[in-house]
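Input sequence (150 aa), recorded before submission:
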Amino acid sequence: MQYFEDVVIGQPRDIGSHTFTEAAIIRFAEQFDPQPFHIDPEAAKDSNFGGLIASGWHTAATVMRLIVDSAIEVEASLGSPGFDNLLWKQPVRPGDTIRARLTCVEKTPSKSRPDIGSGRFLIEVFNQRDELIMSMTSIGLMRLRHPPQG
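Predicted structure, token format:
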């Protein structure tokens, strides 16, 4: 688990994988994104996608879970003010297994609070065929393990 000082710019880090089931896709979409191509396998056959697909928000939420489980030090994390450039490049279908990779592209110590810093992280998500299916840049705020004494 990483504090601000431990993050290395440019070093990719695999953060886990997840397999989507038809039941989970439908359950998520019924609650949060009830479009026919997410909740009705028969109707989805006649959609632009030619079959049932996961909501992009389901994919994003699943990736967030992977980040929390494998890349966030609970004591170091101070949350996030947001993300940029969220792109859904390919649909996720029942049976697809996604894997996510996190790469710090920039980190900056806070000018006003010497005990924290921020990092910009490129998050890339691939399916089992190594196709890029989603990407985004996340901003993470984190504590320093050894803040300067002042």
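Checked by second reader. The first helix runs from residue 22 to 32.
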